[in-house]
Please model this.
Amino acid sequence: MNAKTLETNSAYAKFDVDGDGVERATEALCTTLAPKGSRIEVHYERIWIADDYSVYFSTANDDGFDIEDWTAPTYPTTEVNQHGGEISIYTNDGGKIIGLRVIFDDILIYKQNNIFKIFGNYPGQYTKVQIFSANGGISDRSIVASNEGSFFLNRDNIYLYNGTQVQPISFKVKSTIGNINLAYALLSCGVVFNSKYILAIPSGSSTKNNLIIEYDIYNKTFILKNGFEVSSFLIFDNKLLFVNDDGKVYQYEMNTTSRESYWLSGKTDLNSPESTKETEYIYFYGKGGKAKVSLITENKTVSKEITLTSFLTPYRTVLKNKGRILQLKIENVSTEGIYSNFTIVKPNIMLDTDLD
Model:
């Protein structure tokens, strides 16, 4: 089939498909203008742009990608893999695209309630597959790509996409996630730095990101830090910086000596809500400076400050409390404005249970 172009303009080309001088309805989008969108990525020598409901990819050829050519012909061609194109990402819930990332050599499209992955290296291979459906909106600025995969915040959890599946990772701080101000959750922002996923969220009634969740990727532990207001993060010159609404830039300190920090467990009734638990001792291994350990029930909070040795040592400390619901809190201690820095692992509580 030898078609010749009869008419062209900035948007379309009409073809005489049969070579008889008669225009047919077959048209091809032949604009060299990039589509409008709010997110952009580079993947296998193509530029990808996303708007609310579609992703677009630029032309690629023997000379590499061409950022000035977004030709997406519907006319049959043997050069389909050298052209650009569009992939529609519509869903029944009407959710919009809020994120576009390259993870493990695949394009991931994050919608408000879903995640899609585009398999393939060129248009003839592209396949769209849904890999996640969320219970609530995903926070765009919490999406961070790293060597381990993609971290992101949902209204009920922090998740990790590891290249195969999406898994929740924040059960240990479930109560903290549950206390996010959902009306301002989209302000949440994250970064991966020094093998930690650092996420700033609006907690309680705050309309700004006033709490930081610091997740150690390899040890799978959490530290909570307050006293911050974070609008966005930036890694520059091997330093982690952040800004807040006052327009100033600050350096984020990875240690805890300049900030009040604490770890708070989830609340538990030990699967026995009808029973009263009476605690006596807490056991753990620890090292570093002074630590404050608190056991919280629905009735009261009991606390004790413990000075730790410089090497990892087992400890047994009296910590008596009584209630149906238990929660453990471990925090640093301030001495003349300098907060302690310590390590505590494997905390265990000795208790008795009485059925009513």
